[in-house]
Design brief:
The protein contains five helices and two strands, in the order αβαααβα. The chain has 171 residues and is mainly alpha-helical. The longest helix is centred in the middle third of the chain and has 55 residues.
Amino acid sequence: MFNKLIRTALVALFFLAPAVSAEMKIVVLDPQAAILTSDEAQLLIEAAQKELQPEIDELRTMQEDIQALQEKLQKDGEVMSESERRKALKDIESMGTDLQFGSQKLQKENQDRVQEILQSLGPKFQKVLNDLIQIDQIDLILPANPNQLLYANPKHDISRRVTEKLNEQSE
């Protein structure tokens, strides 16, 4: 009895859904992508990358040193004394730990910079979004996140329009 009632309700919703969706303006938006692809955000990202370049170069050099030491150990390992081999392995392990720590630190710094950019451009984003909501008379905005949205026709994604409006505000 209960299952029959549920099926009847689902069938009724199925037939009513087109009428309801025709009345509502529903769009999808990826706020982070809209902000981070704006011209102003791109300039801030480039500045952050330039600022972090010494750390990136240091990590790259460290990786090259580890690789060179590994190649030397592989090539000359048979003629090395046991203590030299142990020292080389210990150096590789120590440098690997330093590289991992440095990589994590750099990744955290990148994430922090992205958050700073998102926060600094947040008010502009909100203004642009509110303007678009009014202009297009949007009733519902769904997150354009693949983990949260099963499907959305790209014509309903307003992320690019938000980015364009953000760029207009910067000019």
